[in-house]
From TrEMBL:
Pfam families: Amidohydro_2. SUPFAM superfamilies: Metallo-dependent hydrolases. InterPro entries: ACMSD, Amidohydro-rel, Metal_Hydrolase. The keyword Hydrolase applies. It comes from the Bacteria. This is Predicted metal-dependent hydrolase, TIM-barrel fold. GO terms for cellular component: cytoplasm. GO terms for biological process: secondary metabolic process. Residues 7-302 form the Amidohydrolase-related domain. GO terms for molecular function: carboxy-lyase activity; hydrolase activity. Keywords: Hydrolase, Lyase.
Length: 306
């Protein structure tokens, strides 16, 4: 077997205590599929998939399904747990810290703790909390602090503000729209220009943003200028989780800055066979620099050189 080289920037950690906490919140079970996770299971998947390092993050629903101190305490517990996994196996894992996004002051405190004491590689943010999207002024202090730290942000979707449609689980379509809404919010609000040192990764190759780029380019710019809209859209990094199919990759690669495309799997929410199918399609696609996408772009990003 070849030495693994891939860096997976979209992999999830599901500690047993978090899984049980979520399942005890009486959430919509159709939209809340919480797989089991262990470090050994993750390493087994990584080894067979040629993944050298996975940057772990907590997936939806996150901690903001509750308020105040409970959300803050769960975020801290999750971050300390992730940091412990990284400390135990530092050559195989990094992690994105999760924040209690409902409360700006608590979020700022967790940023400081995660970066200064827990060696976070970045943060995972939801595009919205209770319908307030990430580009709104109320969230600006958090973006400003992340910008000051030149932080890497994984923008990971969740359910839309009004919930999922009956019979259509949120991950099938709503998650993609949530990511697109989050990206548009960051652009139209001017946040991408006010905070130029933010490095934002859009999950699942930006949802369907690459496909609609020409449709919205003139409107995502605060200047309502099409060229400026394309400039803003190409500021984003994209991961390939659940997106590197033969039908999707031509659109993704036509849209993305080639230095900003990176491997993602969505393991374990995406089962191993699905992850492998998307990785195999990525390997078979001729329109990319595979070494850059597999590891080079991520190495530059997380070293601060990108």
């Amino acid at each position: 077997m070849h030495q693994p080289t891939r860096i997976d920037v979209h992999a999830h950690i599901v500690p047993d205590f978090y899984r049980e906490w979520c399942l005890n919140k009486d959430l919509d079970t159709e939209n809340l599929k919480m797989p089991s996770w262990s470090k050994d299971k993750a390493l087994g998947f990584m080894d067979q998939a040629g993944i050298k390092t996975s940057i772990l993050s907590v997936s939806a629903p996150g901690v903001d399904i509750v308020d105040g101190i409970e959300a803050t305490e769960m975020a801290r517990r999750l971050n300390e747990n992730s940091a412990r996994v990284v400390t135990e196996t530092p050559d195989r894992f990094g992690y994105f810290a999760i924040l209690p996004q409902k409360d700006v002051d608590r979020a700022l405190a967790e940023i400081a703790f995660a970066f200064d004491h827990l060696n976070a590689a970045g943060v995972v943010l939801r595009p919205h909390v209770e319908g307030i999207y990430i580009g709104e002024d109320s969230f600006a202090p958090v973006l400003a602090e992340l910008n000051r730290r030149r932080a890497v942000v994984l923008l990971h979707p969740s359910e839309l503000p009004n919930g999922a449609a009956p019979g259509i689980p949120a991950f099938m379509a709503d998650f993609l729209l949530d990511t697109v809404r989050g990206a548009i919010s960051l652009m139209r609000s001017g946040a991408m220009d006010r905070f130029p040192d933010l490095r934002v990764i859009l999950s699942h190759a930006g949802g369907f943003l690459p496909f609609i780029a020409s449709r919205i380019a003139g409107r995502v710019s605060p200047l309502e200028d099409e060229e400026d809209g394309y400039r803003l859209m190409r500021r984003f990094y994209l991961d390939t989780s659940l997106a590197s199919s033969p039908t999707s990759l031509p659109s993704i690669t036509a849209f993305a800055d080639p230095d900003k495309l990176m491997v993602g799997t969505d393991f374990p929410f995406a089962p191993e066979r699905r992850c492998n199918a998307f990785l195999n399609a990525l390997a078979a696609f001729d329109g990319i620099d595979h070494e850059a996408v597999y590891h080079g772009n991520a190495e530059l990003l997380f070293s601060g050189r990108s």
